[in-house]
From TrEMBL:
Residues 19-214 form the Apextrin C-terminal domain. This is Apextrin C-terminal domain-containing protein. Keywords: Signal. InterPro entries: ApeC (IPR031569). It comes from the Eukaryota. The keyword Cell wall biogenesis/degradation does not apply. Residues 1-16 form the signal peptide.
Length: 224
């Protein structure tokens, strides 16, 4: 009974937390965006020849979008300065919106050299800061100032959301369980110019990016 009461207090406390003030963007999960946020999407025409796109896990991932030989990724964007407080110290990234990062973050980018021949890139709605033409460049805000790798931060724990993994394991969030997910987009084979700069999410090469999926600890785990 005591343990259940403590769990109830933890859930109630985490649910009272609001998103930090400022403008920023995060990947959209299948459960949808936070209330009042805008949505947008980016369709990337990936390599046609010997395409090696992949999502990990291959089934049971939680990105909202279309992931096959090409990629359509959706984003949730907070366009106003509403909210309370600053982003807490930790080890994680968000996508940049509004030209600057919130206090405490450093900025950087990832550039994808998308398919050259018959390129069908497109986009719509509100997206993170970036360049969306025949190729794709997205700007990020990252920080690595946690007091401990095992420290917890407070963010809204009412519904699932994504953050980007940065330099260590996924940042712990109070009231949430976290799992790693990965998205690989096979970019142009010929004269490839994909690159990255500054502070950006963790990735294994120019095309695979690491994400952290969070869901409330009091609900059943997502399917594997």
């Amino acid at each position: 009974m005591v343990n259940m009461f403590i769990l109830f207090l933890m859930i109630a406390s985490s649910c009272a937390v609001s998103w930090p003030s400022g403008k920023y963007s995060i990947p959209k999960p299948q459960t949808g965006c936070p209330s009042g946020w805008s949505e947008g999407w980016r369709y990337q025409d990936n390599e046609d020849t010997h395409n090696i796109n992949s999502v990990t896990p291959s089934t049971g991932y939680h990105f909202f979008g279309t992931f096959n030989r090409n990629t359509k990724m959706y984003y949730c964007t907070k366009k106003t300065f509403s909210g309370s407080g600053k982003w807490p110290k930790g080890n994680y990234c968000i996508a940049r919106k509004g030209g600057t990062c919130p206090s405490g973050f450093c900025t950087g980018s990832i550039y994808w050299d998308d398919q050259d021949s018959g390129n069908t890139n497109s986009h719509g709605g509100d997206l993170p800061d970036g360049v969306y033409n025949r190729n794709t460049k997205i700007y990020y805000c990252c920080r690595s100032d946690a007091t401990s790798i095992d420290s917890y931060i407070d963010l809204p724990a009412r519904e699932p959301f994504y953050l980007y993994k940065y330099t260590s394991t996924c940042q712990r969030v109070r009231g949430m369980t976290v799992r790693d997910e990965y998205l690989k987009m096979d970019d142009e084979d010929y004269r490839n110019s994909s690159s990255d700069n500054g502070c950006h999410p963790k990735k294994t090469d120019s095309t695979e990016v690491y994400y952290c999926y969070y869901y409330p600890s009091h609900i059943d785990p997502p399917p594997e």
